[in-house]
Amino acid sequence: MRPLSGEVIDRVRREMLGRGFSLVETPSFSHESLQNRWNQRSSLLLFSSKHWMKYPHLARYACWLEDLVTRALPEEKLSFIGLEFRREPAGHVNREVDRLHADAAYLRAVYTLYGASTIYRENRQEFPVPEGRTLLMTAQDRTRAVRIPGTLHRRPGPGPERAVLVSTFQPRSEEDEAVKIYRQAAAQKPRRRDK
Questions:
Q1: Which parts of the chain are beta strand (E)?
Q2: For residues 179 and 35, which has the higher predicted lDDT (pLDDT)?
Q3: Has residue 92 got a pLDDT over 50?
Q4: What are the distances in angstroms from CA 187 to CA 1, 35, 108, 173?
Q5: Fewest CB within 10 A of the end CB: N or C in the chain?
Q6: Main-chain dihedrals φ then ψ at residue 12, nearest 5 degrees
Q7: pLDDT at 48 over 60
Q8: Which pTM does this prediction carry?
Q9: Residue 142 contacts residue 170 (beta carbons within 8 Å)
């Protein structure tokens, strides 16, 4: 994935310290293999999981995202905790997340792989996350810690099948830093389909 520019880091910092969320153009990566490999509706890869080795392209995305977050918000000392793949079948309804809400955790990121995008709220209006962008969001623990409003967002509601990646960040601990398998997986030489 291409390196982050200082301009992008500065913009994300301003937005995360101001309105509490940011939309970031996401480098492209191959995710077609996820549809074939993950049969479950939801799968979670924690930072220490050995399963990262099967998904080096996701590991590179996680590293890119962590680099962005830690450079934009260095004083918050955040660490990547895990990535969840969610596949929602056509017509799926979830009363809890189909309404506006702010997530638990400290900071979350959502990226739509295919299907309808997540909806976020700004100035009392709702907008879909633009295609190819990751939405960085202030979650409830960050709201309590730094007094920035939580990012209200929701699923787009019933519609065609969709899949999203949801990443979680928490304040760093020494244990988290010790075992970051996704960093080892990201360092693997990309195979043709992983590029």
A1: 21-25, 42-46, 78-88, 107-114, 119-122, 125-128, 133-138, 153-154, 162-171
A2: 179
A3: yes
A4: 12, 23, 24, 23
A5: C
A6: -60, -40
A7: yes
A8: 0.87
A9: no
Q: 118 φ, ψ to 5°? A: -60, 145
Beta bridge partners of 107: 138, 169
Distance in angstroms (rounded) separating the CA atoms of residues 118 and 157: 9
Predicted pLDDT at 75: 96
Q: Which helix (H) or strand (E) holds 176?
A: helix 174-178
With CA atoms as reference, report the closest residue to 150 among 112, 185, 103: 103
The whole-number pLDDT of residue 39 equals: 58
For the stretch 67-88, pLDDT in tens is 999 999 999 999 999 999 998 8
Q: Is the dihedral of CA 192, 62, 156, 87 positive or negative?
A: positive
Classify strands 162-171 and 107-114 as parallel, antiparallel or unpaired: antiparallel
Which helix (H) or strand (E) element contains residue 68? helix 56-72
Spatial contact of 120 and 127, defined as CB atoms under 8 Å apart: yes
Strands 153-154 and 119-122, how do they pair?
Answer: antiparallel
Angle formed at CA 35 by CA 161 and CA 33, multiple of 5 degrees? 150
- Let me know if 19 is exposed, middle or buried by CB neighbors in 10 A (0-12, 13-18, 19+): middle
| DSSP track, 144-155 | HHH------EE-
Candidates 98, 175, 103, 84; CA nearest to 142 is 103
